[in-house]
Amino acid sequence: MHRSHRRRPLRWVPALAALAVAPTLLAACGSGGSADAGSAAAAPRSGGTLTFAVGSDAGCVDPQQVGSNDTIYSMRQLVDSLTDQDPRTGAIVPWLARSWEISPDARTFTFHLRPGATFSDGAPVDAHAVKATFDAVPHLGVLGQLAVGYLSGYTGTTVVDDLTARVGFAQPNAQFLQASSTFSLGLVSPASAAKTPQQRCSQGVAGSGSFTLAKYVPGQSITLTRRAGYGWGSSLWAKKGEAYLDSAVFRIVPESGVRTGSLVSGQLDAIGSVGRADEAALRGAGVALQARANPGVVFGLSLNNSRPLLGDARVRQAILFAVNRGQIADTVFPTGTRPATSVLAHTTPYYTDLGAQLRFDQARARALLDEAGWRAGPDGVRSKDGVPLRLTITWGPVAATNQPALELVQQQLRAVGVTVVLHQIPISQFGAIQRTSDFDALWGNITRADPDILRTSFSTTLLNTYRLAPSELDTVLTDQAAQPDPTKRRALVDRAQRLIVANAYTVPVVELQTELGVSKKVHGLAFEASSRIQLHDTWKG
Q1: The whole model's pTM is what?
Q2: Distance between CA 43 and CA 24 in Å, rounded?
């Protein structure tokens, strides 16, 4: 039972649950959500080490401060959340909390914890730990941007009793129930919560997850070991008790060809960031390709509105029209990747199809630049008052698709007279870049199975990385986060998407589709609701 026995909340909670559900929500693509190739009838067995190669290292091993998928894969295994989200339906279901009530005004969330759960440092998972975890989040700084956004307006957690925690907000916060299922709000022990953000990043945290952090070698590997005595897994998991695997090693292998070759040769069990160019070789070797579309903000160019060049909406809109999304999706990304048709992926609840507003239209792009006073010279490059039209795109080597995708963007913008410089930086520097907004455009995406990710990204009342000016958008984003009525919230999310696209605050390009290569020896490697992996039910045989 996940809802109050009191009459008023009973009417309200079903509406809240619907916020995380859409008819086409999080549909699996490719070979589906788990790898069971060649052994559908085999009995699961315990033991063994899963060796998984990713392309990058975020330089941080605190789940609440990590935003890169490559590192989230391992960090998700360390922490449990109060709730979980069903990847098939979007429904919020029990995990560390066995039930909850939500006040009619969506300002108070009361969680009833299951007894017996502990953190890896021995501390109990109780209401005091919930309070310590959430109280520490506002002090995480820029690397905790996602967690801080989820707790916007947080007024504190009341310890009702050892197994009952009441989380309060200054204003209605309808998005919080789904947020309680995310890795960003995964619970950590009070001792870990008391550490500085820097200590948490370098030393890791004590979570209650089915794996613990055994070793971290920056830039090389992250090693996890099975948590002995674990017995409080998500209600979605098939296996009760401890995980099957003894350990999991996440190796950092930046070169996609090396990852592919090592998987084919049997040196690896699974790889992330599979690109289109690697698919044929992997299929030919009998490797299962698992793909799943990510909900949330799509891959694109988020523009710094405080730069003189990009403060002009006509220039931002010209960049939007100059990008050929279909060509980029079909040339660079895995098979099945969809061009962006909104700032949100189509798998996100309350997505609005704005494909017509995101059409490829070079003539329109050139006309907007002409109108803004940027004239093409003999070589086609535009300038104004002797200043060339030059845009620097900052990006990190998180996925093998990033560089070829941006090289196509570079060519497409050059065709309308915009010179593009590609500036690669280490993943570990992204926090500082976001804090100072020292960029023209950032390439990336943000995954979350709730449209409130728009508020985290574009509200001027939060971090405001893209230096937007206060506008109607702020009010719309604040109101949708507070709105418990699904119909009314849908209308607000629709308005937010239209405002973001019309003003070209970001240039949506492609929807991220997570594609993994998985050996035939690996079974039960599953995607969770945000298209990251869940290893509890994974086994080798």
Answers
A1: 0.81
A2: 32
